[in-house]
């Protein structure tokens, strides 16, 4: 068995397990109490706070422990927005933030606030200039992740923090994916993170709020954790989380180099081994342990199932693996293929042999799923697909471009609409237009992405009875 | 060492520790994932939910795990209020609820809602009739604890649940202190609890919402736990919490009988062993493991320190042990003495010998603190103090009642104002009035309580320069 989904949750670090066991004995009591069990818990909590603050790059009294990374984000954003309500109610986020940030943004918008989502390039990276341009006089808060959780792309947080300072806007950095690897660079104002991402136990998040940042906690008052995280503190889990963070940081440099080499190998080899595959995310400015690729004509859920049978646990941003029927908002914002999406995130200590075994298993797993779906044979010029400068994502249609062929994929889910398109594209003359009727949300992303990968011209979409009509011009 | 504060937090049950260790190995992954580690976590989570639901007396799909009892209360109250916003914005609570309920009520009032606090008798018990009378056509929610956390008094939840049903109002029962001992009786609508109170780990709360109860979760949307508890679930802690709940329930009947006998012994012996002491809370309808008493002329913090030195960890509702300078709202609502307050809550397994040792140590500890404070010698008729029917808490003054003596206790904290009063009461003639000038918040509770205990007549209070003037008429 190989668990390659540490970006979802890392297995408990051995140091965390040991610290947890010790703290269950020593730190179970209420740290607010005056008797010895309480004082002991208090000492452990204070020491954990110092350790975590050092790793986060802030003062201990700037950091509180929350019950999860999600709570840190929800409560951090709400508190920062409320603290600057007099300035205004404008919130800036990137389009590729973790869903908990976007949930907070949606709640803010529903409550009458305004939100600007800053887009990314095709690698998932926010342009610092575009981010700075979104800041306004009434901007209460800006949020930017340190690195993306689905594709590994690092964001320009140091530059954006500087731009935010210049604009007088606090920047909240969601560091959930990167804190294991090092402190967040730059002069951020708020920081959030989640312990189970770095090998700590679940149930612990971090929220750091620098001195001087206006912050007004929402919800009922509670005296715990400086009034910023209500409820009885889980001291044993906090102690374990801090111990794990210190431990992974001590190993970070060496382990980052080792995993980065393994990730580079996957990035290079997958397109060679598996035809019609796109590796996504910034090739250089990226997390060391995470790599994501998408495979044409593949049902993500079926591929995950095949890989699971072969002993590999990975995750996917394909809509067909989620309950929502909508592909990952990250892949959508990047404008890349969502079907057959696979995220590999290697936990510390991953053996080279396991990665080799994964590379050995993957081609057969993909081929199996493709065969089952009746996918077309690999295109000429494969492996790797090809990009044509003529491809125009979101291109234009002229009045005379009536489709010579319509593919009815209504009621069929990803990746079937794209497979049906690929099957017939060779049947029409060069320059002719094909329409694909589909009602699956992934088609909106995957048909243009397929065109970009295969050098076909995407013309655009029109409402159609029962769904949407996507128009593609054949470019031979 | 004897830890007698299980009402704050119980030591981890051995079964919980074992379950936690196993679940750290088996249940660390994301239960929403499709691979085997995720499926395994899901199975554990589902099983824990069934166990907890059975213990709570609800269906598994009515119960979610929160990150603490406080979060269960905060989010349960907010969701129930929002779900019935169209009905109205009136909230009913008892005056002796846990602070997290009263915090929610205060937040609701600050947000424009209205709150009725239903008082209790001197034993801390809510009268069902008074509670039912507080329900109005615009009442969105009513909250009543199953048993009080400071004095152990059980509340009439079954009757109140029936009254609430009749009025069409959902009743939320905070069962934090009682769930270890048995299910909450009656037809409640929502229920909250906290695992570390029953020997589970910290970081786990329960929120049950019966089918048909209108509930609209507040805050950013999140798909976890039926949308009612955001954030990555702490499956190992949840598994341990459920295992501990099942274990304590299996032992509950036998252990309740055993601890009840020990508590009865404390209730009977403390007034015999320690002069000028009042045992508080309902003598019959009470939790089996908890007993509370207050000692005149004693500084609660000093007494806790003495007991800690002697190896006993207990808690106190005295203001001098808290950071707020205000005595426990529970003792205030009951109208009982707050100074020298001690709560003893015995964890399961407490040995009889430990209780005997406590009873052996207590008189010396109290005497030591009293001597240090220069407290008066025990009154005639001690031990136990005496109650006079002439005592009129909140009594009246007539125009001619000018004090013959004024005790200036401004700037002196509890229990000094009461000690100074007691020292001079014998110096004035029968029927004469003494004024005590004090600015300590505890004086407002403790001077009338002292009068009630010592058969003196409390006349009332007046604003005075720098504080308040409390008037007492000597009754010889």
TrEMBL record, chains A, B:
Molecular function terms in GO for this entry? transaminase activity
Please name the InterPro entries in this protein's record: Aminotrans_V_dom, PyrdxlP-dep_Trfase, PyrdxlP-dep_Trfase_major, PyrdxlP-dep_Trfase_small, TusA-like, TusA-like_sf
Domain UPF0033 per the UniProt entry, residue ranges: 407-431
Instruction: Provide the cofactor list for this protein.
Output: pyridoxal 5'-phosphate
Q: Does the keyword Transcription regulation apply?
A: no
PROSITE patterns reported in the protein's UniProt record: UPF0033
Write out the biased-composition intervals (Low complexity): 375-393
* Keyword Transferase carried by entry: yes
Write out the ranges of the annotated region (Disordered): 375-404
Q: Which reaction does it catalyse?
A: (sulfur carrier)-H + L-cysteine = (sulfur carrier)-SH + L-alanine
Top-level division of the source organism's lineage? Bacteria
* Keywords, sorted A to Z: Aminotransferase, Coiled coil, Transferase
Q: Which residues form a coiled coil?
A: 242-269
Its family remark reads: Belongs to the class-V pyridoxal-phosphate-dependent aminotransferase family. NifS/IscS subfamily.
Descriptive protein name: Aminotransferase class V-fold PLP-dependent enzyme
> Which classification does the entry list for the species?
Bacteria, Bacillati, Actinomycetota, Actinomycetes, Kitasatosporales
């Amino acid at each position: 068995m190989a668990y390659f989904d540490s970006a979802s949750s890392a297995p408990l670090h051995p140091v965390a397990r040991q610290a947890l066991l010790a703290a269950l004995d020593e730190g179970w009591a209420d740290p607010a109490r005056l008797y010895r069990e309480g004082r002991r818990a208090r000492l452990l909590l204070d020491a954990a706070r110092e350790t975590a603050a050092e790793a986060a790059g802030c003062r201990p009294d700037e950091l509180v422990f929350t019950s999860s990374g999600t709570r840190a984000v929800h409560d951090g954003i709400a508190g920062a927005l409320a603290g600057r309500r007099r300035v205004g109610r404008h919130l800036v986020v990137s389009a590729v933030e973790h869903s908990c940030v976007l949930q907070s943004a949606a709640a803010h918008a529903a409550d009458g606030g305004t939100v600007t989502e800053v887009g990314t390039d095709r690698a998932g990276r926010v342009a610092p200039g575009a981010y700075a341009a979104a800041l306004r006089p009434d901007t209460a808060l800006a949020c930017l992740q340190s690195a993306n959780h689905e594709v590994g792309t690092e964001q320009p947080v140091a530059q954006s923090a500087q731009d935010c300072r210049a604009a007088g806007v606090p920047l909240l950095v969601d560091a959930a994916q990167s804190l294991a690897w090092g402190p967040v660079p730059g002069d951020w104002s708020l920081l959030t993170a989640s312990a189970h991402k770095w090998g700590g136990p679940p149930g612990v998040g971090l929220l750091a709020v620098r001195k001087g940042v206006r912050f007004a906690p929402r919800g009922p008052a509670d005296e715990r954790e400086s009034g910023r995280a209500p409820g009885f503190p889980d001291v044993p889990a906090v102690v374990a989380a801090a111990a794990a963070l210190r431990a992974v940081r001590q190993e970070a440099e060496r382990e980052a180099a080792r995993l980065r080499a393994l990730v580079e190998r996957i990035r290079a080899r997958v397109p060679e081994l598996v035809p019609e595959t796109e590796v996504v995310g910034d090739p250089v400015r990226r997390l060391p342990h995470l790599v994501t690729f998408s495979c044409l004509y593949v049902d993500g859920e079926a591929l995950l199932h095949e890989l699971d049978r072969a002993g590999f646990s990975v995750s996917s941003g394909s809509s067909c693996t989620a309950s929502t029927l909508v592909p990952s908002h990250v892949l959508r914002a990047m404008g890349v293929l969502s079907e057959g999406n696979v995220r590999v995130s290697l936990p510390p200590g991953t053996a080279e042999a396991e990665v080799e075994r994964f590379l050995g298993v993957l081609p057969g797993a993909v081929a199996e799923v493709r065969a089952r779906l009746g996918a077309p044979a690999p295109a000429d010029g494969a492996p790797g697909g090809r990009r044509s400068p003529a491809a125009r994502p979101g291109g234009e249609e002229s009045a005379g471009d009536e489709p010579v062929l319509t593919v009815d994929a209504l009621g069929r889910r990803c990746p079937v609409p794209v497979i049906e398109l690929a099957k017939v594209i060779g049947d029409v003359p060069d320059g002719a237009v094909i329409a694909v009727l589909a009602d699956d949300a992934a088609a909106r992303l995957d048909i243009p992405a397929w065109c970009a990968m295969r050098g076909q011209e995407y013309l655009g979409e029109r409402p159609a009875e029962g769904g949407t009509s996507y128009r593609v011009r054949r470019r031979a």
